[in-house]
Design a protein that fits this description.
Two copies of one chain form a homodimer. In chain A, about 35% of the residues lie in helices and about 25% in strands. By secondary structure, chain A is of the alpha/beta class. At the A-B interface, helix 8, helix 9, strand 10 and strand 11 of A face helix 8, helix 9, strand 10 and strand 11 of B.
Chain lengths: ~425, ~425
């Protein structure tokens, strides 16, 4: 077993996985499907010949453990599942790079590193079938809402508990997997960026500051239907006019917040006919920030603006919260290590937040020091068969993850 | 037969018609239904005892003619049909007030006025069943698009020609009714306002300057879907942002136009999900003005603004014309007579354009000198069972229409 890391081997293994479980429409590793089972088998085979213990936990997460001198654990995590017709790297880059890093560590320490090293492959990160992401990691962190999850139904009317039973998982016991985290000292996750930030900056890698908190609301403006021909402009209670003014406003709110983002993703109008002023206009607003206080400010500013615009249009406005999650800022020491590892690998690093959620957010919220590393996405796109990353960037990402693992092991050892 | 006009009789007859053809949900005089046939019979009975000739023309329009010394005709027109669950006065005020005015003229001149006086009840003004308004009057004016009308289908799959055949009308011959206009010298139409202008001003009656021309378009902005969390604000091609900026802009365009109105009546977004920037946003824009040049300017300004907003949002924009009709400015002499008649009746008049279309627009476009008179609508609303007008205003409207008829007869006589 070579003591030298081989990023090329990871690239070759990623391609092997793609050949095994993808097709012309992209990656098809949807959780709990035969393709996913094949991907899991492929992952297990990567550990052959290594002194690791492997098992699936109560929620279907896969763990490969290389025991060390200390029971304290370095976790390297990812997810091999994909959305239907997804990208070839989303999720599995993390798990296969983790295998290579574990191999290098095992070889360096003759199978007995100073701290325990584990690779985890989370079950159903994407939530493609039941519309609920982070299933395995939220079961492990304890954040999974059992009542909500129990009622989830796929498009064929099959419930999540029924689907889990078919793959040998007892839904009512999934949170038992929480014990897997009891010795966890740090969690690392490498992922493709899924956005255009590193692409725009021409950088290969970035250190992730944390995952955004999200405030997600439906906002409905209530005005009055009126004939488009007979109603003078100054007599209108135009709900679309009030709602439309929110769009430029959220750009200003996001700008003031520093690094937050705000999105109006949908707009519906009633009665919605060409000859009537809009009586009711519903928009959805998704706001994200890494800082909880700033997220709250963004939310408050949007609310105040909506009330002002409603009043000025002779309308009223009502808000309904659709979803909310707190920001998960990553561990400052680990973010520094990540930054250093990137600089040592390719000279320049960049710190950025993660807009999308990741399993890392669940681990972080469970109190485990966590950091993520992003590698550039071509086209700045994901969840699409055209998702891709340059091979040289993939190679650098494996190398930087390995350096980060080394720094983190030393940090765990020093703290013990 | 009294030589004194009785506006109260018109009010009583309107109530009689309501009792006969309305219910708790409003007026139900939808064209070509049994209720409409009953309303027509009720109208015919109003002429009993008067020396009038009555017939239905090739398009189902009803004509009652009081022959005069001159073959030149004064037409007083309206429509007894309503939308389903409509208002009690919309359309039938005109026809029943016309009956009373004809009665007064007949009595004054012992059945032989100096010019011929006709009351016309247009067929299917509302277009409630086939979605095509002004059927009878556009057949008469010659503007009816036969190819388009031939293909119209109601919600039960019945074509317009089939429905007409059931009431004894041969669709292919409807334009034969154009001959009814060959001696027409002037056309008067009294109507409820259907908007809030007179209500706001506290006025009973107004002289109508003409019906607005309409430019009706669908505008689609094309941007790019992008993840709401991972896409920085300055990297977005947000089609909703571009479309939303049109809303305040059309208020400015309408203001600059003087008396025009602009309405964005609907907005749809694609993919229209909370976690994505909007890729495609389609809005409908309805623009109306009495002046053709100003209408063209409003349209050009909206188009230029949409192109600017699209460019600034990194989007493109495409326009599709849904409908168009030229403005129909009424006859200046008749507008003056209308204004005078109103002032003599209630002291104050007001000149205003009509946003909604009326049969008067068709007659006007056929080259007949035309004017309309509006009476105040409570709530500024129509096409609704709550549509209403104060009885004192109804009485004044009949009186003012009578004065206008007198002035117009004298004008026709003087021109002959």
């Amino acid at each position: 077993m070579s003591k030298v890391l081989s990023p090329q081997r990871t690239i070759d293994e990623l391609k092997g996985l793609r050949a095994l479980t993808g097709n012309a429409d992209g990656a098809q590793r949807v959780a709990f499907t035969p393709e996913w089972v094949a991907a899991r088998d492929y992952l297990r085979k990567r550990f052959e010949g290594l002194p690791v213990e492997m098992h699936d936990d109560a929620a279907g997460n896969f763990w490969a453990t290389l025991p060390g001198e200390s029971a304290k654990e370095l976790l390297i995590g990812g997810h091999i599942d994909s959305v239907p017709h997804g990208g070839w790297l989303d999720g599995c880059l993390n798990t296969l790079a983790g295998v290579e890093v574990l191999r290098r560590i095992s070889a360096q320490y003759d199978g007995r590193p100073p701290v325990t090293v584990r690779v985890v492959d989370w079950a159903d990160e994407e939530g493609a079938r039941f519309g609920k992401s982070l299933f395995g990691s939220s079961a492990c962190s304890g954040n999974l809402d059992m009542d909500e999850a129990r009622g989830l139904v796929d498009k064929d009317g099959i419930t999540l508990p029924e689907a889990l039973r078919e793959v040998g998982i007892d839904f009512e016991r999934v949170k038992d997997c929480g014990k897997e985290l009891q010795n966890a000292a740090a969690y690392l996750e490498l992922h493709i960026e899924q956005g255009p930030v590193l692409l725009d900056k021409g950088l290969a890698l970035g250190a992730v500051l944390g995952t955004f908190g999200v405030e997600r609301h439906a906002i409905t403006f209530h005005g009055q239907a009126a004939h488009s021909g007979s109603t003078p402009m100054d007599r209108r209670k135009d709900a679309f006019f009030a709602a439309a003014r929110m769009s430029p406003e959220i750009y200003e709110i996001a700008k003031r917040s520093g690094m937050g983002v705000c999105t109006i993703g949908s707009c519906t109008t009633k009665p919605g006919i060409v000859t009537s002023v809009v009586a009711d206009c519903r928009i959805t607003l998704d706001q994200r920030h890494l800082d909880a206080t700033k997220l709250a400010t963004m939310h408050a500013e949007a609310k105040a603006a909506s009330e002002r615009f409603a009043k000025e249009a002779g309308c009223t406005v009502s808000w309904e919260r659709l979803w909310h999650i707190a920001p998960a800022p990553f561990d400052p020491d680990l973010v520094n290590f990540c930054d250093d590892a990137i600089k040592e690998t390719c000279g320049v690093s960049h710190r950025l937040p993660s807009g999308p959620l990741h399993d890392a957010a669940e681990v972080c919220m469970a109190g485990i020091p966590t950091v993520m590393m992003f590698t550039q996405s071509l086209h700045g796109i994901s969840h699409n068969k055209i998702e891709d990353t340059k091979e040289e960037h993939l190679a650098m990402s494996v190398e930087a993850l390995d350096r980060l693992a080394g720094k983190t092991m030393a940090w765990i050892e020093a703290k013990s």
